[in-house]
Design goal:
This protein is α/β, with parallel strands linked by helices. The protein is built from twelve helices and nine strands.
Length: 262
């Protein structure tokens, strides 16, 4: 948790907000994937390392295809952890968060997964299909290891559920900006997102970042004041799919610039 806490503190002191970038581990293959993550961390303040899974229900077509490519290249939980270990060696200070569905964690063994994630240098977990009602044990084990469990809040989350999410989450909460699956959007409901993020922060008392649909700096600018950070995934994964390193650099640069005050 310490790297996450320091990142929020450092950026707050600079008047900036964290750019959090998602990419799928081992996409398009394990060797190239590591290079893409290193490039991402030249711009991003935190990275989400997606754990490939055969049935990523919360994800749209772009990230679904990334999971398929990764699995075809031989991705499994061990290889994801190896990637995190290599990434940590090259980037000792920035937070690395593992994001994945619960089934692979269950198969690997929950206790073993948390322990091994700690050993390779991960800082926390996002498990989108682990609801707070069922995630108390996982949250407690992660926190005992000094890792940050991050639970999802949504437009449909009741105040009562947000209290539970706040209790179980570690350093921050991930607000899902829309109902539905991941994917790039042209426009977002900026005022509604800011209103809901304010509600989440007031009830939980924790920093709240926004993800789902964000794909360009303009999105960040239009709701800059309220969220405590911004998550971008599909727009990045699409450029990896296209093997467009130039386009990826341009996107990451523009996104990071948007997280700085005007």
């Amino acid at each position: 948790m310490e790297r996450i806490r320091k990142t929020f503190k450092k950026l707050t002191e600079k008047g900036e907000k964290p750019l959090i970038v998602y990419a799928t581990a081992c996409d398009p293959n394990c060797r190239e994937s590591l290079d893409y993550f290193k490039l991402i961390l030249e711009y991003a303040d935190m990275v989400e390392v997606g754990m490939p899974f055969s049935d990523p229900l919360a994800d749209g077509p772009t990230i679904q295809r990334a999971h398929e490519r990764a699995l075809s290249s031989g991705a499994n939980t061990c290889r994801v952890l190896e990637l995190v270990s290599s990434l940590r060696e090259s980037c000792p200070e920035k937070p690395i968060i593992l994001m994945g569905y619960y089934n692979p964690i269950f198969v690997y063994g929950e206790d073993r997964f948390i322990k091994d994630s700690k050993e390779v240098g991960a800082d926390g977990f996002i498990v989108p299909d682990l609801p707070p009602e069922e995630g108390e044990s996982f949250s407690l084990k992660a926190k005992e290891m000094g890792l940050s469990p991050v639970f999802l809040a949504a437009p449909t989350s009741t105040d009562e559920r947000l209290v539970k999410i706040g209790q179980l989450s570690g350093e921050f909460i991930y607000y899902v900006s829309l109902t539905g699956i991941t994917g790039e959007r042209e426009e977002l409901a900026y005022r509604e997102i800011e209103r809901e993020v304010s509600r989440v922060k007031a009830i939980t008392g924790k920093p709240t970042v926004v993800g789902f649909g964000i794909s360009k700096g303009e999105h960040i600018r239009k709701m800059y004041n309220t969220p405590d950070g911004f998550v971008v995934g599909s727009a990045v994964v699409r450029r990896i799919e296209e093997r467009d390193r130039g386009g990826l650099k341009e996107l990451l640069s523009s996104l990071k610039e948007a997280t700085k005050p005007l």
